[in-house]
Amino acid sequence: MNPDQDRWSRVKERLRTSVGENVFSSWFARMEPESIDGDTVKLSVPTRFLKSWVQSHYAEKLLGCWQSEVPSIMRIELTVRSAVIRTLVAKAKPAETPVVRHELRDGKANGMEFRAASAPISAVHEALGGSPLDPRLTFESFVVGRSNTLAHAAAKQVAQGRRGDPVMFNPLYIHAGVGLGKTHLLQSIAWAGNASAERKVLYLTAERFMYGFVAALRAQNALAFKEALRTIDVLVIDDLQFLQGKSTQVEFCHTLNALIDAGRQVVIASDRPPSDLESLDERVRSRLAGGLVVEMGSLGEELRLEILKSRAAAWKHHHPSFDVPLPVLTFIAKTVTHNGRDLEGALNRLLAHSKLTGQPITLEMAEREVRDLIRPQEPKRVKIEEIQRIVARQYNVSRADLLSSRRTANVVRPRQVAMYLAKTLTLRSLPEIGRRFGGRDHTTVLHAVRKIENLVNSDTALAEEIELLKRQLQE
Ligand code: ADP
Ligand code: MG
User: Fold this and answer.
1) What residues contact residue 388 under an 8 Å CB cut-off, 6+ apart?
2) Residue 33 bridge partners (DSSP)
C-alpha cells in the first residue's frame, strides 16, 4: 500500500526543521515513499551515492521523524529507484559467457575465502559510485621487480596512510605502457585502503569519473558536492588519458584542487607523463606534475618469470591438476611480450588446453599454444662486411677477391652468394649492395640474387651451404 501522502509531508516537514533547509534539499528533496510494510517504511532515492550517504549520516534522524508520526515504525529501508534494472543487467551477463571461459574466470581468483571476505569492501566502494574492483588485483599478488619498485613503494605508502596523516606526495602520478601493472597497483591501493573502515578510497576510471561521478555530483548542489568530497580520503583515477571534454576537465580540476587543498590523497595512472596529456589545461598538467611522478618500466624477463610463477601457483588452488613445469614458465617468460596481459593470456591457454584434453603441460604443447603471443625476434642485424668475411672464409678466397672485378669461376660464385645473402639478411637496397661490392651496378646484384635463388631450388648441396652460412651469420 502507498503510505498516505499527508503523513509523508509531515515527516518531511519534521526533517526539514531538524536538519535545516540546506541539508534537507541536498539529501531528502528527491526521496520518495514506496510503501509501509508492517513496521518497515520503504523509501527510495535516485542514486546509490545518495542512499549510502543518507544511511550513514541520517538514518537515525529519519527513523526518529517517522516514529514521531507513526510510533509503530521500527525500520527504514532505502532503495535505489533504478536498482531493479541494474541488478537484472548484472545477473544476465555471466549466463551469456561460455562455460569454459566461466571456469577460467574462476581460475583467476586467488581463492574463494578471499573473495567472500572482499564482498563488504566492494559493497561500500560501489555505494560510493566507484568502478568495480577485481579481487585478484591486490598487493599480495603484485610482484615487485626492478621496473616497479618505486611505484610499488609509493602505492604502499599511500595505502597505509591514516586519516589525518600528513600527505607525503600529492598527487601520486604513475605512468607506464599498456599491461605493465598500473591498474593492478591502483586497485591494490583501493582494496588495502578500504580494508579499514576508518578510511574511504574511491577508485574510478576516467570514464567513470566523466559519466558517473561528475554527473552524480552535478545532480546535487554545491553543498552536496563539498560534503561528498569530504567523505573521500583517497581518490584514485585510472587511465587519465581518456579524460575528455572541456566541462569534464573543469570538474576534474575543481575536484583535484579541492581534494589536494583539503589534504586528501589523489592517485592517478596514465599511459603517459603529465606533460604529454595534450588535451589538458596547462595549469592542470602542472598541478599533476607537482606531486610525485613515477614511471614503471617494461617487465624484465626475471619479473615476468616471477609473475608467471605466482600466477600458476594461485591457479593451482582452484585447479589442482594444473601443473606447469618450470621450463615451460621459463620459456614463456623468455618469449612472450613484455605485456602482463599476454603473460596471463599464455597461462590461460595452457589451462584451457590441459582442462579440455586432460594432457599434462609440456614444452612442445606450450610452444604450440602460445605461438602467436611470441614476441617477434628482433632479427639480428647482419653487416655486409661480416657476410663478405664469412663467405670468403667458407670458399677460401679473400675479401678483396669478392670486391674485385675478377670473373674467374672460383670467385664469381662466392660473390653471387655473398650478394644474395646481403639482399636476404639485410635491409640494404640493391644499389647500396652494389656499391659495397666494389661499386657494381644494381642490375648485377639483381642478377646474382635471381641466379642463386634459382640454383637453391635445384642444387641441394648449395642450399645446405647457404643455410649453414646464414646460421653462422645470425648466431
Ligand atoms: P595496465 O593497467 O598498466 O595496462 P594491468 O594492471 O591491467 O596493466 O596489468 C596487466 C596484467 O598483468 C594484469 O593481469 C596484472 O595482474 C598483471 N601484472 C602486471 N604487473 C604485475 C606485477 N608486478 N605483479 C603481478 N601481476 C602483474
Ligand atoms: Mg589499466
Assistant:
1) 399, 402, 403, 418, 437
2) 43
Quick check: CB of 239 below 6 Å from ligand 1?
no
Contact by Cβ (8 Å): 391, 418: yes
Question: How far out from the chain centre does Cα 448 lie?
Answer: 51
Q: What is the CA radius of gyration of the chain?
A: 33
The Cα 284–Cα 248 span in angstroms is 12
Is residue 183 in contact with ligand 1, taking CB distance under 6 Å? yes
Closest CA to 71 of 5, 19, 11, 1: 11
Residue 245, C-beta contacts closer than 8 angstroms, at least 6 positions apart: 210
Give me the numbers of helices (H) and strands (E) for the chain, helices first please.
23, 8
Tell me which ligand sits closest to the C-alpha of residue 182: 1
| 146 in contact with ligand 1, CB cutoff 6 A | no
Ligand 1 centroid – CA 181 distance (Å): 3
- Residue 454: φ, ψ to 5°: -65, -45
CA distance 222 to 342: 45
Measured between alpha carbons, how far is 451 from 417 in angstroms, rounded to an integer? Answer: 9
For residues 206 and 325, is the Cβ–Cβ distance under 8 A?
no
Which helix (H) or strand (E) segment is 402 a member of?
helix 399-403
DSSP 228: H
Separation of alpha carbons 416 and 411, rounded Å: 9
Task: For residue range 120-179, list pLDDT tens digits in order.
Answer: 666 666 655 678 888 889 999 999 998 999 999 999 999 988 777 778 889 999 999 889
* CA–centroid distance for 397 within its chain: 57
Span 426-437, mean pLDDT? Answer: 90
Phi and psi, residue 111, nearest 5°:
150, 150
* Whether the Cβ atoms of residue 355 and residue 327 lie closer than 8 Å to each other: no
Q: Judge contact between 444 and 435, C-beta under 8 A.
A: no
In the predicted model, what is the mean pLDDT of the chain?
Answer: 81
